[in-house]
Amino acid sequence: MAGQSILISIEVLSRLLDALCDQGSMGRTKLSFLSRLNYLVCLKYIRLMEDLGWVQVTGDDRDQRVGITPTGRAHREAISKHLEERPRR
């Protein structure tokens, strides 16, 4: 993602990481559905999280599965805590 700028949402990251923690490794389509994201937007977040080491993508182009890494689990905890502690709008 070098040279590209992307606007990210901590709430979206939270939904993605929660889905992966709750359901385990899954396909990209199922992950986009469970996290209530447009498929193409979901792919961008998957690439970002993979670059950060939060998820691991396995399989071939036709059947890729996304799974959360220990680093992703740790960040999920930190994000959840942050979201719980911030003032409501």
Could you give a quick summary of the protein structure above?
By secondary structure, the protein is mainly alpha-helical. It is built from four helices and three strands, in the order αβααββα.
Structure description:
The protein has 4 helices and 3 strands. By secondary structure, the protein is mainly alpha-helical. It has one domain (10-84): Orthogonal Bundle (Arc Repressor Mutant, subunit A).
List keywords for this structure.
4 helices, mainly alpha, three-stranded antiparallel β-sheet, single chain, 89 residues, Arc Repressor Mutant, subunit A
Bin the strand percentage.
5-15%
Number of strands: 3
CATH architectural label = Orthogonal Bundle
Q: What's the mean pLDDT score?
A: 92
Helix content: 55-70%
Q: How many angstroms separate the termini? A: 32 Å
Largest sheet descriptor:
3 strands, antiparallel
Instruction: Assign the CATH topology.
Output: Arc Repressor Mutant, subunit A
User: Looking at the chains present, what oligomeric state does this protein adopt?
Assistant: single chain
CATH superfamily: Winged helix-like DNA-binding domain superfamily/Winged helix DNA-binding domain
Write the H/E string, N to C: HEHHEEH
Which structural category fits the helices and strands? mainly alpha
Unreliable parts:
none
- The number of domains: 1
With strands numbered from the N-terminus, the spatial order across the biggest sheet is 1-3-2
The CATH C-level name is: Mainly Alpha
Number of helical elements: 4
- Overall shape: it is globular
What Rg is obtained from the alpha carbons, in whole angstroms?
A: 13 Å
